């Protein structure tokens, strides 16, 4: 990724949750390092790229999150929430806690360490595109600003998860992340005093280790019917580019956006539904 395209990361301090392994977070880490950032990675897996500061953190553990952010310290320019699990190797509740409650707690904990005019970008999924259909329930979730509140909400809203569908908790967690990102974005600037922006990227199917996990969970019929207007699935660097754009000075006026990055799959599904 050209330095000229992302001019604002040189010398900036950034935090990437989920920056270990070989997924979208790792792609974001590589691009940030290339563009001169001081990169702190928070993950259960070590980062693949040299030159980062690494803190091993389980996002199901609120205290571990708080301790890690304290170690990162003040002066954060941008937070990249890239952590996530598919749900095939975790319980429904753990999937929700990692993908939503942990990400939210990390963000809220980091806020006091983020500089004025800072930015937050979070990976959701195009599986969460229909969050507006259940907005009342997600507003109730966002109002319960704690791990215990998130657990209580999850247990009380089982109707949002399709029985027997392996990815149901994943979809709910990603709808929750999208709703939270939009509804929280207006509050981040503290009535304009700190001007902290928050945006969300909604990737489609991507060739990552998590993508391979979805192949093991979802049916062949699903992938046979999944539209690929570009003639291929995404490379992890493509959602990562969107994250870097949203958290850069190039997007200084962008706030409260859910940006779909799926090669046109969602658009194709919507077009088909209208026929």
From TrEMBL:
Signal peptide positions on this chain: none
A Pfam family this chain is assigned to: adh_short_C2
Highest taxon of source: Bacteria
Keywords assigned: Oxidoreductase
Single Gene Ontology MF annotation: oxidoreductase activity
Similarity remark: Belongs to the short-chain dehydrogenases/reductases (SDR) family.
Name assigned to this protein: 3-alpha-hydroxysteroid dehydrogenase
Organism: Corynebacterium suranareeae
